[in-house]
UniProtKB/TrEMBL annotation:
Role according to the record: Participates actively in the response to hyperosmotic and heat shock by preventing the aggregation of stress-denatured proteins and by disaggregating proteins, also in an autonomous, DnaK-independent fashion. Unfolded proteins bind initially to DnaJ; upon interaction with the DnaJ-bound protein, DnaK hydrolyzes its bound ATP, resulting in the formation of a stable complex. GrpE releases ADP from DnaK; ATP binding to DnaK triggers the release of the substrate protein, thus completing the reaction cycle.
Sites where the protein binds Zn(2+) 2: 171, 174, 193, 196
Species this protein is from: Leptospirillum ferrodiazotrophum
Cellular component, GO annotation: cytoplasm
Cofactor: how bound: Binds 2 Zn(2+) ions per monomer.
HAMAP family per record: DnaJ
Annotated protein name in UniProt: Chaperone protein DnaJ
Any one Gene Ontology BP term: response to heat
CXXCXGXG motif repeat intervals: 154-161, 171-178, 193-200, 207-214
Length: 381
């Protein structure tokens, strides 16, 4: 991964200005240019990498995406095919390096649109959407419907942009590559072919339905089940539901960035569902059965006599499903004891009597006039 960190490739900090990046790129490009290092494979590879890095960091938009979905954005991975209902895993499939995955995303987000430099057949762009779920929806799974506007292949021309799908010829200027090589002083530079706009082909009669783009914009509603147990920061991939590819290329994917709202009662810790519950003084002393809220029906928890504050009870398998491991966490109940702050006269007398028979020493200053209990009395009675 480190060799693919574009910032270190260009030798600049993550906060470098556009100008600094440009300067660093130029300097390195001159140094490693193949014309200056004939036959040097290492220099050639480095030159390619420098260009790759500049392609991203030299473009404000791409740089922003790189900074956002950069290495940390890919740390959350799922098992391929791990999800029911058409999910085919998220980022981090197999042991694919960050670089491979990232280039896939970059190609998807930025390639293709309006004729990429490579021309011809290319994959459609990916689509990224934010999905907000309640705590329960995330824990139990939820079928969601997302509205998207996407490019789909134009039916009348079968996506090739020519009227009736005919009258397409290979561009004679670039011989179909979409690129031309131009001598520019010391260097030979590759440029997008002007004759075909990098498409590598020329259409003599343009398809009226799509104006020759081969794709038309369509509003779609995509319905899918989000698997139980997703958490904030996870990214779910729905394969092939992004924009249509160009000239028969595969469609991009739809990515869903999951965000889960907090819950007033439950907290999630790993795969455990955590609930805090307070016992009354007498419940803690005599024991009781508590109804503990869970994501389904309440769970009757038997509390032993003499339960201490801070006691933690763990009920196995009543927690949250893990979409990657398929395991289920526990229900964790943290028990507290509520000390009453308001006492009736009768309650106070009973507790004073309790203190007396227990041999508890009266608190300092609890003399009949002006003692602790008198103060409490004056406040509450
Ligand atoms: Zn051309
Ligand atoms: Zn068309």
């Amino acid at each position: 991964m480190s060799s693919k960190d574009y910032y270190s490739v260009l030798g600049v900090s993550r906060s470098a200005s556009a100008d600094e990046i440009k300067k660093a790129y130029r300097k390195l490009a001159m140094q490693y240019h193949p014309d200056r290092n004939p036959g040097d494979k290492a220099a050639e590879a480095q030159f390619k990498l420098i260009n790759e890095a500049y392609e991203v960091l030299g473009d404000a938009k791409k740089r922003q995406v790189y900074d956002t979905v950069g290495p940390q954005g890919f740390s959350e991975g799922f098992d391929p095919g791990g999800f029911p209902g058409g999910f085919s895993g998220g980022f981090g499939r197999g042991s694919g390096s960050f670089g491979d995955i990232f280039s896939e995303v970059m190609d998807g987000f930025f390639g293709g649109m309006g004729g990429s430099a490579s021309g011809g057949r290319s994959q459609g762009e990916h689509i990224l959407r934010q999905v907000d779920l309640s705590f329960e929806e995330a824990a139990l799974g939820k079928e969601i419907s997302i509205k998207i506007a996407r490019w789909e292949s134009c039916a009348p021309c079968s996506g090739n942009g020519s009227k009736n799908g005919k009258s397409v010829t290979v561009c004679s200027t670039c011989r179909g590559t979409g690129l031309i090589r131009v001598q520019q002083g010391f260097f030979i530079v590759q440029r997008t072919c002007n004759a075909c706009g990098g498409e590598g082909r020329v259409i003599s009669e343009i398809c009226p339905a799509c104006s020759g783009k081969g794709r038309i914009s369509v509003d779609r509603t995509i319905t899918r089940s989000i698997p139980a147990g997703v958490t904030t920061g996870m990214r779910v991939r729905i394969s092939g539901e992004g924009h249509a590819g160009l000239q028969g290329g595969p469609a991009g994917d739809l990515y869903l960035d999951i965000s889960v709202r907090p819950h007033p009662v439950f907290v999630r810790e790993g795969d455990d569902l955590v609930v805090e519950k307070n016992l009354t003084l007498t419940q803690a002393i005599f024991g009781t059965t508590l109804e503990i809220p869970t994501l389904g029906a309440g769970y009757p928890l038997k509390v032993d006599p003499g339960t201490q504050p801070g006691t933690v009870r763990r009920i196995r398998g009543k927690g949250i499903a893990n979409p990657a491991t398929k395991g289920i966490g526990d229900l964790v109940v943290r028990l507290g004891v509520e000390i009453p702050t308001r006492l009736t006269r009768e309650q106070r007398e009973i507790l004073e009597r309790y203190a007396e028979v227990s041999g508890d020493a009266p608190a300092a200053g609890s003399s009949p006039d002006g003692g602790l209990f008198s103060k409490v009395k004056s406040i509450f009675d």
